Amino acid sequence: MNLPICKLCLTNKADKMNSHIIPKFLCKGIFAEIPHRHTLRFVKGEKERKAQDSIKEDNILCTNCEKRIEVIETYFGRFFKEWENFTAFPEQYTLLDKNLLLCTKVHPILFKLFIYTIIWRLAISHSKEFKNYKISEKVVENIRDFLNAGLKNNKPQLLNSFEDLSTPLFHFCIIKPKLPENILLTAYNINNSVHLTIINAFGIIFFSDENLNNNVFVEVSNVQNKQVLISIGDNEIWQSFNQKIFQTFSDSQ
Predict the structure, then answer these.
(1) What residues does each domain of the chain span?
(2) What is the mean predicted confidence (pLDDT) over 144-153?
(3) % of the chain with per-residue pLDDT over 90
(4) Which of 115, 116, 158, 207 is the most buried (most CB within 10 A)?
């Protein structure tokens, strides 16, 4: 079989099957806990389908690059469990005001590596579910360079080599509801330079234009390498926001 080249390292054959586009641990609240739990999968122009696992694709990564992504995902798995109940970890999370959370024990560059593995995989995905998440090739290559330089084969290598990385200069904001919410998984472009991802009770707003003029987003952006910030929204607003997304998909069927 003539395998394509790995999209991350651009060197090895992309021999890995069933690579998750979204980290599996982030989707557990959608698919786990109840036997045979499922969600509905919407693709414009197609009938809705049941889904019991997050989107996977074959032959986009080599085995080694899949391992490198697994290392950063494993490192951040605990972090996402903690922030659902961040008040129980006051030494790690500081509420700057009622709507902004500072993650005091998370290094911004490591956090960027993790978040960009998601953004990059969504951008290169051929899945119909993510066909409306499009980022320019120049930006995708910028992110790929950063990931390829920063991702390592094990945790010690990762933690001993990230501080000298040159990070992308794109703004991105992280949003979450105050209380845990199991809602949906979706990713699409709001416009040509604003890209939204919602994964269960966790959202990424990515701005592929470096010249962000919206002061509201600049203030909570993680473009800087000094701190990790998470915007917290009222659950009522979060639910209303998700209802609008559901309605958008329903209207497209």
Answers:
(1) 63-252
(2) 98
(3) 49
(4) 116
